[in-house]
Amino acid sequence: MGNPVYLDHNATTTPRPKAVTVMVAALAEAGNPSSVHGAGREARKTIEEARSCVAALVNANPDDVIFTSGGTESNHLAIAGCGRKRVLVSAIEHPSVRNCGGEIVPVDRNGIVDVVELDAMLMADATPALVSVMLANNETGVIEPIDEIAEIARRHNALMHSDAVQAAGKIAVDFKTLGVDKMSLSAHKIGGPAGVGALIANEKARGVLKATAFGGGQERGLRQGTENIAGIAGFGAAAKAALSDLSDHAQIAKMRDRLETAIMKMSPDTIIFGADADRLPNTACFTMPGSDSDTQVMALDLAGIAVSAGSACASGKVKASGVLHAMGIDDDQAKSALRVSFGWDSKDGDVDAFLNAWGDLYERIHKDGKIAQPAA
Ligand code: PLP
After folding, report:
1. Of 67, 148, 285, 334, which one is least surrounded by beta carbons within 10 A?
2. Annotation marks residue 53 as catalytic
3. Is the dihedral of CA 44, 47, 49, 51 positive or negative?
């Protein structure tokens, strides 16, 4: 059974009703988009409409959109297929980027990339490079100065990729003015289905991009295999809804700020990570001194509230987050970090429910020095 209060939208967000409707309709239809007959042409139309919606979400050209199986594959294609010998990635990237290898660019205590160091690293070696820095971090919500980073990359003739999986649909994202060559997106972070995403790549990046799997030449040979038509249709509908609801994030930011203010009042020793930086409006990541994050997640789950300890993509593992470690946060603090992330259907009452449950837990810990363990 799910939780009545779901505050883990950075892990995956509630499907948008329109996305569900179009997916169900698409699932009921036969038709391969590569076929020339009417059924095939209908499937192709579904895909091309979705491509335009996804492009519009980030102000890209529809031609720039390469559909993939999600953010993970988009990141892999952007890096493994980049056609460059040297890769530099920030220290706070999602594992789907970090595990592609590459030299690590350090970040400061807020998780912001050290641009002076990046410049020096690129200056020290003229090998054609790709720089990959995420637009917003999945654990802290901290937003990177991508336009400045892209400008440095450009100065050194490096290609620039940004993982915008968490940023898209939460803040205005403009592929063209950010100055990046490639950008990763994922449908299930914006109210579409899991298992579909896109790599946005401009003409220059597409010119050197190499497919990492081979097949029937789909997506102009860059991501081959019969398209996930229903998933892509859902992605398009979610992108359209996310773009039209973008201004709702002002209200979401108010909920997040109310939650953080109340937490600090209850627990003045709490640390809010990235609090001094620009952050996504929906994300809060903070400590509860004296309690491991896994204990908090379990206790809150028992109270009907779904939140995450650090990155949900690494959930199940109870170790200090690599992101917080890279930010220079000490292990004890990192191990007590909790991530609360709001979504398009979050309500003020969710904040109250969270504060009641978190406050109860805090009092139990700080009065009795122990926490009631969840039933086995
Ligand atoms: N990049 C970031 C920043 C993410 O937060 C995630 C998922 O949490 C991914 C990439 C992977 O996306 P997907 O789940 O679509 O593979």
Report:
1. 148
2. no
3. negative
What the block records as the tokens of 287 is 């400590």
Q: What's the CATH architecture for 17-244?
A: 3-Layer(aba) Sandwich (3.40)
The sign of the CA dihedral 117, 313, 63, 343 is negative
- Structural domain 5-13+247-369, CATH architecture: Alpha-Beta Complex (3.90)
Residue 295 CA neighbour count, 13 Å, CB half: 16
DSSP category for residue 143? B
Q: Can you say how many angstroms the Cα of residue 302 is from the centroid of all Cα atoms in its chain?
A: 27
From 92, 142, 189, 279, mutation site for ligand 1 pocket: most ligand atoms within 8 A of C-beta: 189
CA 165 / ligand 1 centre spacing (Å):
6
| Strand 197-201 versus strand 283-287 pairing type | unpaired
Judged against a pLDDT cut of 80, whether residue 314 lies above it is answered with: no
For CATH 3.90.1150.10, the residue range(s) in the chain are 5-13+247-369
H-run or E-run covering 265: helix 249-266
Mean of all residue pLDDT scores within the chain: 94
List ligand 1's pocket residues with C-beta within 6 A: 70-72, 75, 94, 96, 134, 138, 163, 165-166, 186, 188, 197, 313
